[in-house]
Predict the 3D structure of the following.
Amino acid sequence: QHNTMGKKEVILKLAKGFRGRANCYRIARPRVEKALIRQYESRRFLKRDMRSMWINQINAAVQVYGMQYSQFIHGSVVANIGLNRKMLAELAQTEPYSFRCLVGSVADVLTTNSDKHNFHPIQNLHSALDTPMVDTANTVD
């Protein structure tokens, strides 16, 4: 089946629902072009915003244990942890105990490899890991 819709009909169909005179091709064409450009840009902005949100969530979760985000990411690369930022952020929110073990393993790798990578060991991290976590979801007020 060959598409019999012409160029003008495609533009006018894409301009349907626009404000103003969307039934005039000369007016609709630049509006549709601008809308398609903004649609493309918005898809990129969404990816950028989601990545920054994941980074902020990981940073907040890691700072509970006295570690910085950059140290955690560097340690996870050195420890060969294959989780991306989306999964790390989800793990930090939904599985705090698993994330705690992950932070502990990254801290162990950083402290054992501190001489090789000229990386200072994290201070007070193991004492933060030894303290018991409080499960706030199941507490009754």
